[in-house]
Amino acid sequence: MRERKPIRNSVRFEVFKRDSFTCQYCGRKAPDVVLQCDHINAVANGGDNDPMNLVTSCFECNSGKSDKTLDETHILDRQRAELEQLNERRAQLEMLIQWRDQLANLEQDQLATIEGKVIKSLACPGLGLSEGGRDSLRRMVKRFGAELVLDAAQSSAESYCERGPDGNVTHESAARAFSMIARVAAVLQLSKDKPYLRRLYYIRGILRRRLRYLNEAAAMQLMEEAVLHAMDIDWLERFAKQCRSWTQFRKELDAFIEEEIRGED
Ligand SMILES: [Zn+2]
């Protein structure tokens, strides 16, 4: 029988990290279960300790397919086995903590990069983020993802950044642009799920500029309802550019929706 060489700790750490500290057989994770490195090709069959031949397995899953016949009936053996498990658990907790630190560092680096890009979008000389600003950026990235936040920062800068007499973007307007990023990101995300929403926001903007009174929330709801009933968005935009009042707009769309509903019966 071939000798079983112990797997080096650094190798085990790499394998656990690769498998996200998750048993690849049952999906349970450390520290809920004690993990082991299982040989895909068993040592008895010539398998080695190369990471490619190793997979993360919990103690239970591994012992189920183990080829060893350990007689653990003897109390001393059992105690020794328990002690080994305890030591193993401790070693793994340390690995787990180290892994989480590495992930946290990675997140920190990523956040610093995003922060740099957001500051660049706002293009305001001397602008930096406060601790609070950094915190809200971190929450935004967690909620919307980096890409959407960067898009939103760009779009918010275009909408809200204003230049002062010296030609530079003012701190005040840049701060406002920053504070609007989360809202812009939320709209961008909605438009991703419902591609027509972006156009409806645009049409709402037309109405807002043209009409003396507009119930913006009701207008959005009504337009969305109409579009879901197959109203042509191009027609809607043309209509928004020539209708004279919120009442006229509402009546027209209501009538369209009513007709569609009756037609569907
Ligand atoms: Zn398992």
TrEMBL record:
Q: What CDD domains is this protein classified in?
A: HNHc
Instruction: Show the InterPro entries listed in the entry.
Output: HNH, HNH_nuc, NA-targeting_endonuclease
Q: Where are the transmembrane segments?
A: none
Matches recorded under Pfam families: HNH (PF01844)
Which GO molecular function entries does the Swiss-Prot or TrEMBL record give? endonuclease activity; nucleic acid binding; zinc ion binding
Domain HNH nuclease spans what residues?
Answer: 10-63
Q: Which UniProt keywords apply?
A: Coiled coil, Endonuclease, Hydrolase, Nuclease
> Which chain positions lie within coiled-coil regions?
76-109
The family database entries (SMART domains) matched by this protein are listed as:
HNHc (SM00507)
The record ties this protein, via PANTHER family, to: OS07G0170200 PROTEIN, SLL1193 PROTEIN
Report what the protein is called. HNH endonuclease
Native organism is Alsobacter sp. KACC 23698
